[in-house]
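Incident log, structure service

09:12 report received: a user says their structure output differs between two submissions of the same chain.
09:20 pulled the input from the user's history:
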Amino acid sequence: IFSILSEWKKNIDNSLGDYIAAFIGLFILLIVIIIFLVLKLQTKIDENGIKYKFYPFQVSYKNIVWSNISECYIRNYSPISEYGGWGIKGGFSKQTGKAYTTKGTTGLQLTLKNGKKILIGTQKKEEIKRVLETYKRKYTPNEL
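09:34 re-ran on a clean worker, output below:
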C-alpha cells in the first residue's frame, strides 16, 4: 500500500480524477486484504453427517447427511493442476468435482450417491481419520 501511495504521489497531477482513482484502488485493495484475513473454512463431522462452510462466502453450514455419501476418505491433491488453485473451485473435469480449500494439499474427499464429488481441504488429517473411523458404518453399505 505504501509503495502504491509513493508512486501515485510522484505521478499525481492533483486532479479530482486521480484522487478518485487512488481512493477506489486503495478501497478495493483494503477489501481484498480484509477478506483474506477473515477467510475461514470450517468443517464439522458428527453422527448426522458432514457440515462445512467457507466464511464469508457461505454464512451458514452446508450439510451432507451420511445417507447421501457413497465414499468418504482423506487424500492428497494438487490444488493447481486439479482445481486451478485454492478457494471455492470447480474442477477442470467432472471427475474432480468441487473443492473448498484454503491452503495445503490434503483434503476430505466425498463422493455422493448422485455422483457429485466434493473435496474439503483440511489441516487436521489425523483428527479427521479418527472421526471418520467412528462414523464409518454411516457411509459404508452394510454387508450381508
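09:41 both user submissions now match this output. Likely a transient worker issue. Closing.
09:42 reviewer note: The radius of gyration is 21 Å. The first helix runs from residue 2 to 11.
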